[in-house]
Amino acid sequence: MKYETIILERRDGIGYLTLNRPDRANTISLQLMHDVVSAMEQVEAEQEYRVVILTGAGKHFCGGADLRDFAERARERASSGAERQGGGDFVTPRRDIFAALEESRVPVIAAINGAAMGGGCEIALACDVRVISDTATIGLPEIRFGALPAGGGTQRLPRLVGAGIAKEMIFSGLPWTPEEAFRVGLVNRVAPAAELIKECEKIAAVYTERAAYALKTAKQLVNRGVELPLKDALALERKMIAEMATPEERKQAQDQAAATQKTYARIFEKRS
Predict the structure, then answer these.
(1) What gap in Å lies between CA 90 and CA 106, rounded to an integer?
(2) Is residue 1 situated within a structural domain?
(3) Does residue 166 form part of some domain?
């Protein structure tokens, strides 16, 4: 499928989703939101996708919202008399761009190759794993012009790094270096710029070897569990793990593990 503002490719079970508006710093337009949501729907529908690496074309990861695009859309709505859709600027008619990444059945790795500011930072927050180039920056600058993050930044960031660090970043609006982001747990790894995609591919290659049903369940449990009291989260864990696969699927995963490591071969041989 061809997209106007992104590129989606697949190799060896790994999806490569590239934000492709380099002349506009890969900023988020309405069309880009539609394209990312559609691309993630394609990933959901095609089981050959096991993991997605998301990055930006050119020098930037994503410079945030394309304010000119949204201003033009607002003028068009005003001139036509159409009412503004509720739910904020980052909501498409079908699905939220950030939820499309966060709720995907597959792990999504953000390969932060350049500036990830505002909505770009929020895209990274909606991914499961974040690897940042040693030449990139990341931040939520909205407060500097009298606004606040509107794509989940005030909620996802404190869940990831804690309230104190989140407030420091949001209150200042200043960009953070890769080292600062790694120190507080905002990103999982820092990689040399020339090795960024290779580093992400190493992570992705490991995930493609894991049982798809287990990855999907693990992602759902972590995402949902952080919002629940521990007692309820543990109950959810027991329920979802018990129901996450058929006996045949579990046997297939055990056979695969046994074929790669002698320890697992001995364990599962005793059980059979």
Answers:
(1) 22
(2) no
(3) yes
The 3-state DSSP composition of the chain as helix, strand, coil percent (nearest 5) reads: 55, 15, 30
Expressed as residue numbers, the domain containing 230 is 212-271
SS3 category, 139: strand
Q: What amino acid positions are annotated as catalytic residues?
A: 122, 142
12: phi then psi, degrees, rounded to nearest 5: 55, 40
Exposed / middle / buried, residue 254 (Cβ in 10 Å: 0-12, 13-18, 19+): middle
Distance separating alpha carbons of residues 216 and 103, to the nearest angstrom: 9
CA distances from 1 to 16, 39, 41 (A): 13, 8, 11
* One-letter identity of residue 144: R
Domain count, the chain: 2
Residues with Cβ within 8 Å of residue 218, at least 6 apart in sequence: none
- pTM over 0.70? The answer is yes
201-214 residue pLDDT tens: 999 999 999 999 99
Residue pair 176/169 in contact by the 8 Å Cβ criterion = yes
Structure tokens at 34: 């539609």
Question: Cβ-count burial of 148 within 10 angstroms (0-12 exposed, 13-18 middle, 19+ buried)?
Answer: exposed
Tell me the per-residue pLDDT of 152-171, one tens digit each, with 9 for 90 and over: 999 999 999 999 999 999 99
Q: Rounded to 5 degrees, what angle do the CA atoms 161, 43, 99 make?
A: 35
**Are 244 and 175 within one domain?**
no
